[in-house]
Amino acid sequence: MNLENQTPFPALMYSAADPDRQEHDIVVMKVSYKILRHDENSWGLELISDGSVPLCLADEFWGEMGQSSVKVESDLAPYKPMCDVILNGTAYTPNAKEMTAIAVRLKLSHPEKPEQIPEPQKPQPLNPTMPLTDEQVERWQHEKLRHQQAMANQKIKYKTQLEKTLSILGESVFKPNALLPGWKRTSLSTFTELPIRWEYAFGGTNTIYKYADDTAEPLYNQTCFTNPIGTGWIENDYFSECEKVNAKYRTRHEKIEDYKMIKAPRIEYHLQRQPKPAFVKHPKRGDLNAKQMAQISQNYPYQPAGFGYLGRPWSPRIALAGTYDEKWLEEQHPYPPQDIDYGYWNAAPTDQQIEFFYPNARLELWNLTKPEFSHKGYVCIDFPGHRPYITMHFKTGEVVPFPMITDTVLIDTDNMIISLTHKAWIRADTAPLHHVETRFSDEAEGALFIFPEEQQDKKDQDLEHLDHQNKERRHG
């Protein structure tokens, strides 16, 4: 079976199997838009149809893999139970003014159906055998006109799907009080912008080597399970281990210095300021499995705050991947483990996962674009209602349209681009197909196509197969 792309957007077809060894053909297409500013208080989206925003076939990082935030995650996830909303960007102070703290905000909503105002009833003649009087006709026409005006003048109401606010702070450090026990956070420095990446959020790694220029295995290595590249997290034994290494191995010029000066997070959940380092006790016994790591991390006093992709090996995401052990190798490989939760493939923080992306959604941003793009820091964008779909061409000659579902919304405010990753799933046991075509409609109103009842039932069954399967695994 071939894929014929009838759109100017990048698309491909690939295969994946579920834990029950059911094969699925997956069609993926990425549609991207350029964010444009029309005037001082008006913004819009323009389709990018030159192929300059390709599908992402492998994870990309801002720096070294595993040592930096994910820039873009692969578009080839087999199935996401929810739609990821990701924002890659920078926080900007209003009008580029030097400040010590600001709030940034992301909001996604969709228009609700307008209120149904009853249409005026056609008047009845005084006598069934008589026509309406001129006065009755005029009054009825006037009432119909008023009804049309009332429907047209209805204010569109929006229902919020996602709303998230973060605090962006200037640089500061945690350090011990000079005279009294305890810790203090130094005053915040001023700033005008900061990339929103996990390096500036709560988390961290504590590593100690025997010698200053050592490249061998570290003597001590503890990692924050929820964000190993962040700051403000300290394992309980870190300070004492630094002291031991200094006393036993390091010369006077190689001492570990300033290890009690801890960089404070610069990205936090709004108004949830961390006043001191978070000291956490990790078990000293052997390796922990992913579920144990997730249980331990639930008790951390803080959680990383951000808008970007969560790392695949971070908790609690990694715990959803399932069990890969000897039993899996012997009985299930190469298929996914029976205990996989497909929520693992959702890369956004849980408070940025939505059930469904509406093609006519509204996106609002605060302090997330350059000052010259919005001097007040506020941007409001309405999506145009475009709808991607596929047509399945059967060997019998029948052609069946099938909607694509948006599983990732990537908002890149550094480049002012929004990319929507759309997917459609076709079970391998579907009747023999000759080929599949990707299609795209820029019609914002009305139904794109209507499925006959029997085709609608089959469509629902195919689309929800993995979702039902995943829910059964989650709830046993």
Describe the structure.
It is a single chain. This protein has 5 helices and 28 strands. Strand 3 (23-39) and strand 4 form a beta hairpin. The protein is globular. The strands form 8 sheets. Strands 2, 3, 4, 7, 21, 26 and 27 form a 7-stranded mixed beta sheet that branches. Strands 19-10-9-22-23 form a 5-stranded antiparallel beta sheet, with no helix packed on it. The protein has 476 residues and is α+β, with helices and mostly antiparallel strands. InterPro entries: DUF2169. Residues 22-110, 161-422 form the DUF2169 domain. This is DUF2169 domain-containing protein.
Q: How many β strands by DSSP?
A: 28
> Uncertain runs with pLDDT below 50, 5 residues or more?
445-459
What's the main sheet like? 7 strands, mixed
- Proportion of helical residues: 10-25%
Output the number of helix runs.
Answer: 5
Which outline best applies?
globular
The end-to-end span amounts to 36 Å
Query: How many structural domains can be distinguished in the coordinates?
Result: 2
Strand content: 25-35%
| Protein structure class | alpha+beta
Radius of gyration based on Cα positions:
28 Å
**What oligomeric arrangement do these chains adopt?**
single chain
Give the integer mean of the pLDDT values: 90
Helices and strands in order:
Layout (H helix, E strand, L loop, with lengths): L1 E4 L5 E7 L5 E17 L2 E7 L11 E2 L8 E3 L10 E6 L1 E3 L8 E11 L22 H19 L5 E12 L3 E4 L6 E3 L7 E3 L6 E2 L1 E4 L11 E4 L7 E5 L2 H11 L13 E2 L3 E3 L8 E3 L9 H8 L28 H6 L21 E2 L7 E5 L11 E5 L4 E8 L4 E5 L1 E8 L4 E11 L5 E9 L11 H23 L1
Protein name: DUF2169 domain-containing protein
Organism: Acinetobacter shaoyimingii
Pfam family, one: DUF2169
